[in-house]
Write a structure and sequence with these properties.
By secondary structure, the chain is mainly alpha-helical. The chain is about 35% helix and about 10% strand. The chain contains 13 helices and seven strands. Strand 1 and strand 2 form a beta hairpin. The chain binds a DNA duplex (21 and 21 nucleotides) through helix 3 and helix 6. Keywords: DNA-binding, Nucleus, Repeat, Transcription, Transcription regulation.
Length: about 300
DNA sequence: AAATACCACAACCGCAGTCAC
DNA sequence: AGTGACTGCGGTTGTGGTATT
């Protein structure tokens, strides 16, 4: 019954790969391919490694056209956009970034990008559930999330990421967002102190989970015990005051939207993300672009309201 | 100069879905 | 149809290099 055993775990080497092992694996695959059988490959290639380990090494490091090094601003934008929308589906995100592996992106997110975003998440202490979401969303997770989670974009002088939102609701669904998720008319691209903002009503904080759940993988709250909301963890635990950030309202919206999506479908990462297909993802990351004056254009090439978001 | 802390990246682990027997 | 290996994925841990004390 079943197949032959995977590998002799007692006789496989673990830990970092040596240059010799890399060379063996590369040579073997270049000459013979994987034949769709990673388990048998180590023996054929004279490697004392588990097939799983060989596969990982090839896919994440040895495979041709792998791109190492700094991520571009555009790559940041795509990662942020997709993460906010589909969660930690690294393989899907990697599919949109040629040359990048899911492991690469995951590491980049966990070690760098997440921290950048963490530095602008305000902490709130009063946390109540947001108003109930319209029933009409229940059946349409994709349209909901696409409408509600605006793609991130880079401002004209590349200093901060921005999040865009149509002045006029793009759809009936959007129009029925809670009223306090609205923009004002004083937004000014590139000026974090003079931006449109989303104001939560008194006593409300948008997330249902902790505010940093979105950015920290659900590791829990770090709210201030003294009831203040003035501090947040930055690099190496440094406390960054909101007033030092120059703005403070974006994440309220982001988290609200994120949580609304999550609530609407029960479990964001397990339900919504699965409803995406490749076209959805492409549409999502391609749904905004920069106009000649640096404004963000939507799919219909109409200028969108902007507000500063991530200020690095 | 040594010890410690921090960081980035590579690699491993465990799970779930798929597939071969 | 049932069993168990295989594959792919995401989360976590390990490791080596660098910075700081």
């Amino acid at each position: 019954m079943g197949r032959a055993p995977c590998c002799d775990k007692a006789n496989v080497k673990k830990g970092p790969w040596s240059p010799e092992e890399d060379a063996k694996l590369r040579d073997y695959i270049e000459k013979n391919g994987t034949a769709g059988n990673w388990i048998a490959l180590p023996q054929k290639a004279d490697l004392k490694r588990c097939g799983k380990s060989c596969r990982l090494r090839w896919l994440n490091y040895l495979r041709p056209n792998i791109k190492h090094g700094e991520f571009s601003i555009e790559e940041d934008r795509i990662i942020c956009t997709l993460y906010v929308t589909i969660g930690s589906r690294w393989s899907i995100i990697a599919a949109q970034l040629p040359g990048r592996t899911d492991n690469d992106i995951k590491n980049y997110w966990n070690t760098k990008l997440k921290k950048k975003l963490m530095s602008v998440i305000p902490q709130f202490n009063q946390r109540r559930a947001p108003p109930p979401f319209p029933d009409s969303y229940q059946d349409s997770p994709l349209s909901l999330s696409s409408q509600m989670l605006p793609p991130l974009s880079l401002d004209s002088n590349s200093q901060y990421y921005t999040c865009s939102l149509n002045k006029q609701p793009a759809s009936q669904e959007f129009a029925s967002l809670p009223q306090y998720l609205s923009t004002n008319d004083n937004n000014s691209l590139g000026n974090p102190n003079n931006c449109s903002s989303f104001q939560a009503p008194e006593g409300y904080y948008s997330p249902l989970k902790e505010s940093n759940n979105f950015l920290s993988g659900g590791e829990g709250s770090c709210s201030c015990s003294d009831g203040s909301s003035g501090g947040q963890l930055g690099r190496a635990g440094e406390i960054i005051k909101q007033e030092d950030m120059g703005f403070q309202d974006y994440s309220t919206y982001t988290d609200y939207a994120y949580q609304c999506v999550e609530k609407t479908n029960g479990y964001f990462s397990e339900n919504i993300a699965e409803s995406y297909n490749l076209d959805d993802v492409k549409r999502l990351i391609g749904s905004t672009s920069l106009s000649c004056n640096g404004s963000i254009l939507d799919e219909n090439r109409e200028e969108l309201d902007l507000m500063p978001m991530y200020y690095f």
